């Protein structure tokens, strides 16, 4: 397995200090900057668009991990790629033409990710797993930060890990939602190698100490 990567979700940061927040999490040891884009249709919340990705790209040194919780992502992936996303992840439930959209992301020279809501079966990966670079298993129903982790998603993460191993390809396995220092080890033991964490990191007083604590707990 790859080194475990920690991806703070800026959804829970102080947006009035966005630049400083990005600098602080990078200095604290973040591996990726996770950016949650929501359209008010696919999920019942609206957040930020590609202008923010462009602004963050100017100051960030870590890769930008853009999680699109939007309908018809195929209409927008080129824009997010052009604005500086390094990983563009779309939701399997949000696109009737998954293969085409994933191909678009790859053609733009970016890593292509596919995300699954908690209730979405893994079989949806059957005909796309050969091209994806990242699989994101949601451990909450997407839409908001600060929700409770769904423990039975660990079985789904384990099954996804097996599917990845069968391909023999290098595919990152990301988990997102409700992950804290106290449950991170279980998520890693299930097979995840990228942990998204919003409130746990941004609502802590000392990001460096928090990331150190998380790393210590996952071992
Ligand atoms: C949820 C988002 C998450 C969220 C995670 O829809 O995709 O990235 O910000 O936040 P926490 O870690 O607070 O659950
Ligand atoms: Zn996310």
Written overview of the protein:
The protein has 8 helices and 8 strands. The chain has 219 residues and is α/β, with parallel strands linked by helices. It has a single domain, classed as Alpha-Beta Barrel (TIM Barrel), CATH 3.20.20. An 8-stranded parallel β-sheet has the order 1-8-7-6-5-4-3-2. Helix 1 (18-28) packs parallel to helix 8 (207-218) and helix 5 runs parallel beside helix 6 (184-190). The model has no long low-confidence stretch (mean pLDDT 98).
Please supply descriptive tags for the structure shown above.
219 residues, TIM Barrel, eight-stranded parallel sheet, binds D-xylitol-5-phosphate, binds zinc ion
CATH homologous superfamily - what is it? Aldolase class I
Alpha-carbon distance between the termini? Answer: 14 Å
Q: CATH class, anyone?
A: Alpha Beta
Taking all residues together, what is the mean pLDDT?
98
Outline the low-pLDDT stretches.
Answer: none
- The helix-strand sequence is EHEHEHEHEEHEHEHH
Structural class: alpha/beta
């Amino acid at each position: 397995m790859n080194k475990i990567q920690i991806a703070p979700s800026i959804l829970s940061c102080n947006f009035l200090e966005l630049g400083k927040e990005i600098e602080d999490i990078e200095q604290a040891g973040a591996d990726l900057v996770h950016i949650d884009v929501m359209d008010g249709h696919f999920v019942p919340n609206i957040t930020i668009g590609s202008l923010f990705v462009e602004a963050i790209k100017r100051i960030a040194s870590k890769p930008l991990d853009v999680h699109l919780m939007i309908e018809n992502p195929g209409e927008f992936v080129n824009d997010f790629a052009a604005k500086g996303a390094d990983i563009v992840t779309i939701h399997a439930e949000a696109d009737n033409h998954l293969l085409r959209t994933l191909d678009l992301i790859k053609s733009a020279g970016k890593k292509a990710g596919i995300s699954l809501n908690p209730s979405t079966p893994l079989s949806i990966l059957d005909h796309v797993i050969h091209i994806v670079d990242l699989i994101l298993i949601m451990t909450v129903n997407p839409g908001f930060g600060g929700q409770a982790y769904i423990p039975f998603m660990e079985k789904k993460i384990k099954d996804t890990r097996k599917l990845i191993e069968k391909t023999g390809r290098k595919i990152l396995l990301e988990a997102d939602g409700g992950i804290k220092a106290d449950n991170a080890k279980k998520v890693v033991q299930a097979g995840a190698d990228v942990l998204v964490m919003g409130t746990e990191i941004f609502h802590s007083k000392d990001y460096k100490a928090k990331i150190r604590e998380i790393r210590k707990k996952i071992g």
